[in-house]
Amino acid sequence: MKKLLGEINKIKLKLIFVLIYFFLxxxxxxxxxxxxxxxxxxxxxxxxxxxxxxxxxPISKKGMSSNNIESLDDAVVLVKxxxxxxxxxGYGSGFLINESGQIVTNYHVIEDVYRxxxxxxxxxxxxxxxxIKGDKKKDLAVLQIKNxxxxxxxxxxxxxxxxxKGEEVFSxxxxxxxxxxxxxxxGLVSNIYxxxxxxxxQTNAQIAHGSSGGALFNILGxxxxxxxGGDESKDASRAGINFAIWIGELNKLTEINQQRIYNExxxxxxxxxxxxxxxxxxxxxxxxxxxYVGTFSSYFNESVPDCDxxxxxxxxxxxxxxxxxxxxxxxxxxWEGSFNLNSTTCYLQGLNNKIKPKNPSLPNxxxxxxxxxxxxxGSNLKKHLTIIxxxxxxxxxxxxxxxxxxxxxxxxxxxxxxxxxxxxxKGYQQFYPLYKDSLISSSLxxxxxxxxxxxxxxxxxxxxxxxKFKGKEIVFIGYGIESANYSDYTNVxxxxxxxxxxxxxxxxxxxFIVNGAKNTSEWTFPGLSKKLALAASKGAxxxxxxxPTQETFTKNSISSSSKTNVxxxxxxxxxxxxxxxxT
Length: 583
Description:
Low-confidence stretches: 1-55
Helix content: 10-25%
Number of helices: 8
Oligomer: single chain
Number of strands: 33
Structural class: mainly beta
């Protein structure tokens, strides 16, 4: 009836037998999300507690002609923000209000920022001397540029009048990306909210992320507001609902006079550890707050080194109480101690032979894996993963040359870093057999009729054996099921015969009969293997299986039936029979 030949191609594969400790040293990218906008048009200078008008030659005097807009944005700047490690956090916008270099921006732009840098449109850069005034609730701040050369900066004129609803306005800021620095947009004063604090101007002039702290001008080229944000809901964004803080709020800011608005307790303090006992050299591992930070490779005899000196082990810690453990590998003894950091200066901690061991072994609260995590870096990960994921590795599919190349690369790296080999394996790789079957030929003949493979039938190679069956009698057995409350085998003898059955299981009144539920039973999935095993146990020699929902075989089903994926032999789960799947 059916002949199935399966050629089994053994493939010896290497499995890397390894434990990889991939603990990523976190990259703390504090990308500062600046969601407010930028608008301002006025020149001011700050004397003691109040902001006064500065009308000596402001750019704004010429009004909002196209030529004057070009000169107005000379006084609108980029406010770049950095953390204590000089990592770039993000940016906002700002504008100058007097020639000495006072800048207005949003409070949220410079809050929790360690270093502030001002960039003009000509790309000249300046540091900030101090934050003169500000108010978190009003979301306004006034900064002073560090003007060492007494440069006279371009600045804007501040309007002394409250704007009116419906008047034309312009905004200048840096939306989305610094490459769009000093983008101009035009709109109207849509509304004015005078009852809250701060007083806000609603406008449909476009204001996007990064424009926070920018300038909102009236038609005369005077600052009427500081762009601060917008309603980012879908409907409001479509309607162009954006906001600026009325420039008159500058007169209500409180004095700050600090270099930054930053919690100093969040600044890590460099802490240096050293040893002055020779026997500790290359034998003592240091753990701080439970994490491995290094092994001492230098000692200072009886001298005391400078903080951060060459040969010390250094770690950055926040203010507060910390503890350390020194672990001597040869004796398995530990030395423990604690210290309290309460300043921003470098702290020095020494370990010497006068410290007596406290424990016979490394404490349980020590994270031993941190020792290995400390050698992982972003650059190394990028280097190795770029190679492993590269085109040369050909996808690294199991059993392919690409997989063997990747295994060899990893194995060579383990040898380089001195990873201990498994003695029984004499290396890092374990060999074991995998298989992949492919169909050479399969035939089905009924009397004088020869069925066509792929048209009349298929015989999936992954669930058939390399053998043939032949019979003289065919018996239809419905769904091929036998259960407590349903059976297709009642009074049916299938011994020595070929059985025919449907995939799936019968239903009645919307429920499946076998389990009385709306969900299928195990006779549907795994289903087929269960039915074949049952037929084999009753003496059937082969089976024809009909899928009642499939009239033809797809190209994909024909192709997938003729080969298997790579697999590990697990033996047979029990007696079964070969079958042909019919349409």
